[in-house]
User: Fold these one by one.
Assistant:
Number 1:
Amino acid sequence: MSEALLHLDGISKVFPVAGGKSVKAVDRVSFEVEENRICVLLGPSGCGKSTVLRMIAGLEDPSDGAVTLHGKPVVGPARDRGMVFQAYTSFDWLSVRRNVEFGMKVNGVPRTERRARAAHFIELVGLTKFADAYPSQLSGGMRQRVAIARTLANGPELLLMDEPFGALDAETRWHMQEMMIDIAWQENTTMVIVTHDIEEAIFLADKIIFLSSHPGRLKEVIVPEFKHGNRINDKEHIVQLPGYAEMEQKIMRLMREEGARE
Amino acid sequence: MPTPHQERHFFEIRKPVSRPQAILSAIGIWAVFFGVWSLAAHSGWVNALLVPPPEQVFSTTWDFFAERGFASDVLISITRVLVSFAMACAVAIPLGVMMGTFPSVEAIFNPFIGAWRYLPAPSFIPILLMWFGTGEAPKLALLFIGVVFFLITLIMDHTKNVRKELIETALTLGASRRVTVTQVVLPAVLPDIFTAMRQMLAMAWTYLVIAEIVASTTGIGAMMMRARRFLKTDEILSGIIVIGALGLTFDLLFGLLHRWLFPYRKETR
Ligand SMILES: Nc1ncnc2c1ncn2[C@@H]1O[C@H](COP(=O)(O)OP(=O)(O)OP(=O)(O)O)[C@@H](O)[C@H]1O
Ligand SMILES: [Mg+2]
């Protein structure tokens, strides 16, 4: 069994808001993420998923509790935790290749190695033909693939993604989901993915962390046992597996309960 | 059966016009302008001394360059604009980007620059003349003051509009703050900086003419003031045409430069 790479130990986040008041967005959330596993953060809108992810990334400091990676507390953003955002983040002034090389370049990876790694990850996300194109010439799905390749090429310990496919149409979306499963296999990547799409969560997850809303609390940890530890990279196949429908129903019920609490 | 066509009216709401129609319309409005001018001058409705006909103005303009060495005046004016504008950019670009990136820097300079922006630059002319005498310095200073504060503010605002996700992406890729500013914020805002420079260059021409009319013996503005003394309306109008043509040329050059430097922005423009 794989050991835990990332620990969240009772993290909370309080945001100051107008009028001198404050709002508790995340309340004492603890969970861990094992190496080479895909962990999905799921929950109703506004429950604090992004805030939890941003605290893991070091883009937001927890008001309480600690995030540790390999047992070391996380302080600020660093290359060991790469992040892919929902909004497009391609650097428009750089070609696809140079976008993917960016992280390696600022971290002083030698040119030849940079080139080779960039080529590998561009190939992995299926953009070899577009390596010299500029992001403005690409579709939304392709730009998101550039962002994924750029983050992976930088060799992070942990890949964090905040609704990475939220802006894409349904078909592109499941292509991307299948691609992520393949990547997780081939590259031994540990991922934390935020989504509010139940299907996406079940398809991608080795483990689902379900958060309740206002404030965001850990409601339930759901392991899709019906996969029997296998990663299934075919969306059509997974929905037919025994146990899939039950799991979907269970999560829908959780979502509905949370919605009713609003 | 032919496909039915919707009838096209002249007043179509927000439908683009064809290229021939666009060209024809543009020529048309200028033809009307010169037509009315010419008619007014020749028919004697107006004093011919005050409004010389267009062809006389154009031949005077030609004469200026061919016979009377007007090119050197024009060159002086261009140099003044470019030198002072370059100085303004050298201050405004780094400062504006810093202020737009670091709230701490903004907190220092914004209360100061915000106030200066509301002081009309020409109000400094008397004091600039006292401080710098009659050489090039007071003219350059006026243009600098007239442009720099607006340019800083524009660049600051554009820098603030650089999306947070771009900066956070750089940070999570392991870029230092300095690298993030120089390799992400700056290139991201550069096209907008160019646009701001283009707008402010037009303003620099305005202050140039003021400076030359009020306090200069050289340059286009000074030439126009000399012409006024000798009631040479055609020369004054020539000056106006040349200034207009120069402003337009620089604007077009900036547009070309923008397209050449930032080809990836083409789609969005
Ligand atoms: N910078 C901030 N300042 C104040 N409040 C914030 C800030 N960021 C988030 N919040 C609040 O914290 C709560 C959780 O926000 P968060 O973005 O983490 O939710 P989410 O689960 O990602 O939602 P969504 O599904 O809509 O993306 C919300 O109520 C939000 O208004
Ligand atoms: Mg979110």
Note: The radius of gyration of chain B is 24 Å.
Number 2:
Amino acid sequence: MNFELPALNRRDFVKLISLSGTALVIGCVPNGQGNEEIKKINLSKDFDVNQFIVINKEGGIILFNHRPEMGQGTFQSIPMILAEELEVDISSVEIRPSEANRDLYGSQMVVGSRSIQTEYMNLRKMGAAAREVFIEAAANRWQVPKENCRAENGMVVHDDHQASYAELVEDASKLPLSADPILKDHKDFKIIGTSVARRDIPSKTNGSAIFGMDITVPDMLYASIERSAVFLGTVVSFNEDELLKMPGVQHVFKTQRTVYGRERHGVAVLANTYWQALQARKALKIVWDDKGLEKNTTESILNTYKLEARKPGVELFKNGDSNKLLGSKDIISEEYITPYQSHVPMEPMNAIVRVANGEAEFWGSTQNPNGIREHIAQQAGIEDPYKVKINYTYMGGGFGRRSMTDVVEEATDLSIKSGKAVKVIWTREDDMTQGPFRAASFNVLKGKLDSEGNIEALEHKVVAQEIQNQTGDNMEAGGQLMGGINIDYTIPHFTVKGVLQKNYVPISYWRAVYHSTNPFAHESFIDELAHKTGKDPAQYRLDMLPEDNRFTEVLKRVMEEAHWSEKKEGIGKGIAICERSGAYFAMIVEVIKGEKGIKPIKITTAVDVGTCINPDTVKAQTEGSIVMGLTAAIKSGLEIENGRIKQQNFDTYKLLELSETPEIVTVVMKNTLPPDGAGEAGLPTVAPALANAIFDLTGKRLRRLPMDLNEV
Amino acid sequence: MPTFSLNINGKDYSIDAEPEMPLLWAIRDYAGLTGTKFSCGIAQCGACIVHIDGAPVKSCSFPLSAVAGKRITTIEGLSENNDHPVQVAWIEEQVPQCGYCQSGQIMAAVALLDQNPNPSDEEIDMAMTGVLCRCGTYPRIKKAIRKASKLS
Ligand code: FES
Ligand code: FES
């Protein structure tokens, strides 16, 4: 098997080390109090480590990283941090994914843009500690004070001497490691903050990068599964005998998967080739018991949400007493609606699992390697989870969808039933119609202005399902529902309320999660209030934010970059701000009215991600977030008809095209705070900034997504 | 099952499969060339684009029976050393994110530039319509195509 980035297991590590002679091995070890310690480790004995580095006698520096790469460029950013403190050239650091192992590496989940955030300090300390022992080893060897030695470019240098890390590694490995090495000053950074080319990119331009979809293992069957279109339907009967006569078909099984506590049923066709499995699946005749769910539609669900919005809801945030003020007259109130969305990563979901002889193996792309190990072990009744081998590859997009284990559950079930390795491949239609989806929401905002037009009271009520509370009787709305609502605005009386919804449509994490819906309502409404008072919407926001706030800085920066105050004939401008995963961003969208309706022509963003490791990666992530945000704002939205998802494929669930992508300008702010997640910055502000721009140009206010730009 | 002889990247393959099976699966599952991707299966996304006699074709919707005697080029056949001008431009502009759509993007761009070495913005827009990228690499794709047009 040719994986681009082979994940090595511990046996291989030990072998690798013994082959390369004495090495300095520094790991990041959990200390049991939720923190981590940097120390020298012995790989054949110390099992409880997160990421670690090996510096061997040949001068090789290998960084074993414990989180998968999903296309967000962390496999470039992470070695940069290490190389900075270690004083080596970035190209001399090799990065390898570790195998999945929760005991060894803790959580390996890649979600919420957190990879860089968590590793930053650990990596710096590892690099600095190693640099210090190299300097000490050299100073000892030359009998000179270590203050007179410095590290540069993989060497320790003194006025009269110099030695490479490779020459010093044996001595260095015998010295004690400082638990608190001195970190470099920001102003001395040579690598952090520069744009370094990503290493995975060449393999992604010639077809050699391997994704889960590309793997085959010997003696494997392909499975295609017809699942209940109304999600919770059950199988009454199916035409197994007929199908078994079709070319290549080996088995037809009932199967199931669990999605947030609910069993979801289907019928799987297992065949020698994927094409045969697909053909046979088309001939399936399943009688379903749809349990009355087929009566649901988008509008029936929305009507329920509208009725539910009359309930008082749970107060998720409260400042002052907006209840009293908003009970009086002169209230401004508006409603905003967002639909369900599908993740549709370009690589459809897939998984290969082989369960045999009390062991199992998985091959595929995942945001959650440990979850998969545990899931397979439990499902296959394998007591020791480490008898489940996890092989993970590049991911053809995750966006939250690949943090789930449901597809692996299907593959495991079918492998147990057939006794073979089974590769389950979802079709695009499966992917689009089965979910779990980004939650739909109904937002009601109420505001009251004082005599100067300032917001005196504001209430934002979110009516939506909650990912972590989809079933059962608990109807208490949780804090998750208020994601993305900006409570930094100084509003004397400000309440956020949640009314929890439960229904049969499955939901899950989707890029930026609730930040992808709430800010549309919130930042549109703030704009509406600004216009009511006749104030400039950007200044209106600035007036509500404390002076030295990170929001203030990105706002001012984006206003300058996009020449906010210059009005141009025929161009509408809209602004919005948001914070997500610790990253602050402000966005200005510019629109014109063309022959075929409104057209966004330029999107300018200022983004503050704290210390920016690799500006080009932050820019790329912001561009990607904007395209996904624009897709959700003007192109795609799922509808429910007869209890099932109406859109089936990209012919009706449209993605933004190259020709529709406006000019994108991203300004990355300079900042010395620890790095924040950059993977979602830009998505939440697209819809509100666009709606605000459309209002600016046309006086028309769009409050439901996706917006139809041809209709304005 | 009938046998089809295919010429992919200058190499001959003989494949036993149903005539209506799409070329995509012959390339991936029979010839073992996995650079060409499956994503929508209905000619809507472009992940599966290959060249047939130099023209871009969505291989997920092109039956095996129609390719006999034709010259097929996949992403793997573009260059020996990843140095086709479009590949070079793609790397310089740091286009790919997850990378899954990129074989199709590159094959579409190569076909465009072969036909029209100096495309206008509108011509680029047109040629790249129906080649989708969920990661949103479009701004860079545009830049890379312009760069490649200068390189070649
Ligand atoms: S897979 Fe062929 S166009 Fe989408
Ligand atoms: S790079 Fe991920 S889909 Fe295009």
Note: Residues B 38-41, 43-48, 58, 60 surround FE2/S2 (inorganic) cluster (ligand 1) (CB under 6 Å).
